[in-house]
Amino acid sequence: MPSVLLEEYLEKHPEVDLRQASDIKLIADEFEASRPAMEYRLRNLGFLLPTSF
After folding, report:
1. 42 touches 24 (CB < 8 A)
2. Is CB count within 10 Å lower at the N or C end of the chain?
3. What is the pTM for the complete model shown?
């Protein structure tokens, strides 16, 4: 999940709420990844706090 693509996705979809597991699942589905993998990547990029979820 390249950081550039995730950043572009989030810019194009301001309605996405990263505090919602369902929204993270939507992003994960878009990138054909699992929800835990997407959570890990979002944390790694600084979009999620380590204590989220």
Report:
1. yes
2. C
3. 0.86
Do residues 22 and 16 touch, judged by C-beta distance below 8 A? Answer: no
Gyration radius (Cα) of the chain, Å: 10
Gap between the Cα atoms of 53 and 19, Å rounded: 8
Specify the 3-state DSSP secondary structure of 24: helix
Tokens standing for 41?
């990547």
Q: What is the pLDDT of residues 1-53, one digit of tens each?
A: 899 999 999 999 999 999 999 999 999 999 999 999 999 999 999 999 876 55
